[in-house]
Amino acid sequence: MRVDILSLFPDYFSGPFDVSILKRARESKLLDIHLVDIRDFAPRKGNYAKVDDRPYGGGPGMVLMPEPVCQAIRSVKREKSHVVYLSPQGKKLTAAKCQELSQKQHLVLLCGHYEGVDERALKEVDEEISIGDYVLTNGCLAAIVLVDAMARFIPGVLGHEEAAGQDSFQEGIFDAPHYTRPEMFEGIPIPDVLKRGNHAEIAKWRRKQGLAKTKRVRPELILKETENETE
Ligand code: 4FV
């Protein structure tokens, strides 16, 4: 999959894509990430390229201008491209959405900055996605979160396939608690059921644990899950 990330800070991405699973995914060409500097598409006065201006109607902060944003998107957009604008005004990113995006051939991610992007630039955008109900200093972080969570669904990116399949939220509920050696830690043993090695019993216990914690911490997920089951 090719991913073009449009931002004002291409350097922001040096690090998260250069280690561990994402580094391996890029090396094995499962993930082909390109960084585009929106400032390269701004009209230049001398060596200054203006990308932002004050908001019409007044108010605090600055707004990203439509011209450089649209030109940047058009510089990479092609027939099968799917353009996503990361912003707090988007639909919340979910595992299901990550799985859906992982099937795209070409993703174009637009990272907001300042107060946001001029609304008219959104004519080049297919969907707006938020990573959560809080405001970041810049949208680059949201793009990193999306690429990371989405890449896990690309076949071959994770070591053994089923890992993503057993994730939290895969069945709309939390993952079960995990245990590893030592069998006794500071007087706390591992649950007996995990020692008995009866896989059906272990699977039942894990689902029960996942369900119980989801009910306690995120009851709305249960409602949604049962709604999905009853649909
Ligand atoms: C954000 C979010 C987010 C808003 C102002 C960047 C910032 C600045 N993006 N999910 N939450 N973006 O806070 O995606 O433009």
Question: What does this 3D model show about the protein?
Answer:
The chain has 231 residues and is an alpha/beta fold. The protein folds into two domains: 2-151, 3-Layer(aba) Sandwich (Alpha/beta knot), CATH 3.40.1280; 168-230, tRNA(m1g37)methyltransferase, domain 2 (Trp Operon Repressor, Chain A), CATH 1.10.1270. The protein has helices at residues 20-27, 66-76, 95-101, 140-151, 162-165, 192-196, 199-217, 219-230, and strands spanning 2-7, 32-37, 44-45, 48-49, 52-53, 63-64, 81-92, 106-111, 127-130, 184-185, 188-189. The strands form four sheets. The chain has a five-stranded parallel sheet with strand order 2-1-8-7-9, sandwiched between helices. A hairpin with a 2-residue loop joins strand 3 and strand 4. Helix 3 (95-101) packs across helix 4 and helix 7 packs across helix 8. The two termini are 33 Å apart. The mean pLDDT is 92. Residues 86-88, 112-114, 116, 130-132, 134-136, 138-139, 142 line the site of ligand 4FV.
Shape: elongated
User: Number of helical runs?
Assistant: 8
CATH class annotation of the largest domain: Alpha Beta
Proportion of residues in extended strands: 15-25%
Order of helix and strand elements from N to C terminus: EHEEEEEHEHEEHHEEHHH
